[in-house]
């Protein structure tokens, strides 16, 4: 048995208080039930589960085929602050007999409800080990205080996000007793969206309702400001009535103020309004389908800012109840929801949108991690908690194999010849790389991207890497806000007006970022390379084409039409060679790999390329590398072509110095080292004296396109405030 010092089954007591915590605890309970050789499960039901006004939700536990060992009626009705305190007291009176009878080895407690505080207090005082789910998070109101109080009582902690883990460490909890597992409900969420859903939508909202054309509303009282939260709920209902969309309204939880909120619903006739369906409870499996296919969710439930992000459904979070939580970009916060117009404006902004799927709170593998963590608990260890003073340093790896995971990104590089996908760690290490030839058609290309990303994501699990998102580097003009390739280079065919974000996000359930390869190279230098810490610098890519990226005041410049930093198309001669862009005399027409290949072919056709020590097999195409080899072996004409190319690039750099005045210019790509000395000579001869001291260097990054694509994921900040 996978236990440390235990020679018997671990007796686990799971106590559930309401419909919300059961959705998180049920996956763990199912997991425990599937391993009877390791665990004995006792289920205790209390709180609003046993109240008819809140749906008698204990029945769904029975429907899931769990034996309920104990039912405790602990709620004192009144739905005000005093009733909450009395309910905690009643639970504290009743729980000792139950715990004495069950004698669990460990009690699993979820979240931040007042019922959970009674459970944790009873277990701690009766010397029963406590495993707390979802500690370390920050939301708002009294919930934070209760959650952190339970943290101090608990012996073991399962958290959902890296920030929550750091909060627990800062609260002096023992690092070795913290498991970053993700939210257990995500294990069910991420496999749910593709199931049949229209029958569920019709059952709850009517036969005439279409997918993405209805709203789910779930709003709870804020116990620290009940009067304001009731007023906000009234404004929300008024806004929903005016918005005139079919709406499923769930009754609030049992917190103080809920009775007044129900009165507001009835005063406005919500239960009889043709556009509304008011319900006390929806089974979690069905609720998942309803929010996954809704046009919008509105309210202040934690479900909106946590679980709904897995589907990319737009969410409007009202007030302060969840304002401290980490959120995906699908969440629009309306912090001061004090007017009906403001809520209506938010509905108009959000309704019907589709955002990238977010996995901030989990990757679908939480339960296996939690079960392994439970098996590792040594009952022979002293029960007394240890607190770690001072807080442990940041980024200390945990020394148990079920927690060790590397935060990583999937990086995709779409080049003219090859398609590459890599798993890139937070430190810029390429953990694994996959390369295929880039197909010529759109269908083949998008299918290959999806296939390679799915395979890489699966491999990441085996490599203990947690994928945070996907970054894509591609040639051409890109709208990074929408994830669309607007116009591609001639090197990548059938690649105009292509939405890359949606198919990858839908397939992988991950957020996706897309940008131009030149911009990605600049971002790679900013995060991992010689631009790190610099306020202003420019990157020039010298490869098949010529591209670049500009960092100004630490930010990447995209331009008004996403055309900034097309540095390869700076004109350095009015009568120069034709360029692929349709103009002539551009840097790219002189200094790109395509330009050098063109000149190499001309020399080869005239028998002027090869010198002693060189040969080009008949089945091998002449390339820029042959020109460079000839120049190194003393071919004067090849040397002259390289000087001209380097001079053109140098003139372009001079123009950049005079226009942007950066503190550094970084030459990147396979040709950079062949041009660097010529470029510096041109700067000395042509640039103003005030910019001649600006350093020009060759990048030391091996894969700037992949690293830049990864940096979009690793640097992204998800919170949006309205």
Automatic annotation (TrEMBL):
| Protein's GO biological process | UDP-N-acetylglucosamine metabolic process
Stated name of the protein: Bifunctional UDP-N-acetylglucosamine 2-epimerase/N-acetylmannosamine kinase
Q: Where does an N-acyl-D-mannosamine bind?
A: 477, 489, 517, 566, 588
UDP-N-acetylglucosamine 2-epimerase domain residues are 37-375
Instruction: State its location(s).
Output: Cytoplasm, Cytosol
| Catalytic activity, as annotated | an N-acyl-D-mannosamine + ATP = an N-acyl-D-mannosamine 6-phosphate + ADP + H(+); UDP-N-acetyl-alpha-D-glucosamine + H2O = aldehydo-N-acetyl-D-mannosamine + UDP + H(+)
Domain of life of the organism encoding this protein: Eukaryota
Does Zinc count among this protein's keywords?
yes
